[in-house]
UniProtKB/TrEMBL annotation:
Documented EC number(s): 3.-.-.-
Top-level taxonomy: Bacteria, Bacillati, Actinomycetota, Actinomycetes, Kitasatosporales
Natural source organism: Kitasatospora cinereorecta
Primary localisation category: secreted
Top-rank taxon: Bacteria
Sequence ranges assigned to domain NodB homology in this UniProt record: 63-273
Protein's recorded name: Polysaccharide deacetylase family protein
């Protein structure tokens, strides 16, 4: 198995709310990126196939990649899913359960600012259509700043909520903001998740960590040239990488701020290393 680009998307829209706009691609850009993936000779494989390889199973085919989507924006249902279905492409959608609402009703609450999000009927429909539904906590917090009781609610209880909705086990998880710690990763494993996705802005590799899978965040300003480099297995480091001093220092700062009730940053801060 060579390096594997695991692409991370959020919203795919022409008119996103301002807070998510930097992390949004247009439908035309998304279609162009799928065309670039195909032109590069990459095959889009299910996330579970990569996870199996990372856990000692058969290696994935050379020139493979994975599509993932975070948070649960409604445009996944209306814009992304029809394209994936037409092309027969697999993807994993990580859902923040507190942002999902009953049809016609309000969500239970999350730290995400207002946006058009999926409803529970759409989540179950996507699951039935073959989209892998993964966990992304209940409220989208910075998990590595939370006490143990909150971790249980965000990781374990949200998993049960998803499993009750789709009537089967949920195996995949993604850390909000990309943030995790050894304690958070232990809790994710204890909850029964077999994989967890970080960000890291790196290519996955045969030595990557199943509970800290590296992804490449596709943003509004991701150029066609940079995306093309990623599809060639270039333009980003290969995971795993040691946690940087800067990342550890940033975690200590965020924990100190959280202890005083003032966690720093907006809804889409991401760990890069």
């Amino acid at each position: 198995m060579t390096v594997v680009p695991v692409f991370l998307y959020h919203s795919v829209s022409t008119d996103p709310p301002s807070w998510i706009a930097p992390f949004t691609v247009t439908p035309n850009t998304f279609s162009a990126q799928l065309a670039q993936i195909a032109a590069s000779g990459l095959t889009i494989i299910p996330l579970r196939q990569l996870v199996s390889a990372l856990r000692g199973g058969p290696p994935v085919p050379d020139r493979s990649c994975v599509l993932t989507f975070d948070d649960g924006f409604a445009d996944f249902y209306w814009t992304v899913a029809p394209v994936l279905s037409e092309k027969g492409l697999p993807a994993t959608l990580y859902v923040t359960t507190g942002a999902i609402h009953p049809p016609g009703g309000p969500p239970s609450g999350s730290a995400l600012p207002p946006a058009q999000m999926l409803n529970w009927r759409q989540v179950t429909t996507l699951d039935a259509l073959g989209v892998e539904i993964g966990g992304h906590t209940r409220t989208h917090p910075q998990l590595d700043t939370l006490p143990a009781a909150r971790l249980h609610d965000e990781i374990v209880d949200s998993k049960k909520q998803l499993e009750d909705a789709v009537s089967h086990q949920i195996h995949s998880f993604a850390y909000p903001h990309g943030y995790s710690s050894a304690a958070v990763r232990r809790k994710v494993a204890e909850a029964g998740y077999s994989s967890a996705a970080a960000v890291r802005n790196a290519l996955s590799s045969p030595a990557d960590e199943p509970l800290r899978i590296a992804r490449l965040m596709v943003m509004a300003d991701t150029s066609a040239e940079r995306f093309a480099e990623w599809t060639r297995g270039r333009g980003a480091p290969a995971a795993p990488m040691p946690e940087s001093v800067r990342t550890r220092a940033w975690r200590m700062y965020r924990r100190a701020r959280a202890a005083f009730g003032t966690p720093p940053g907006g809804p889409q801060i991401r760990e890069e290393r």
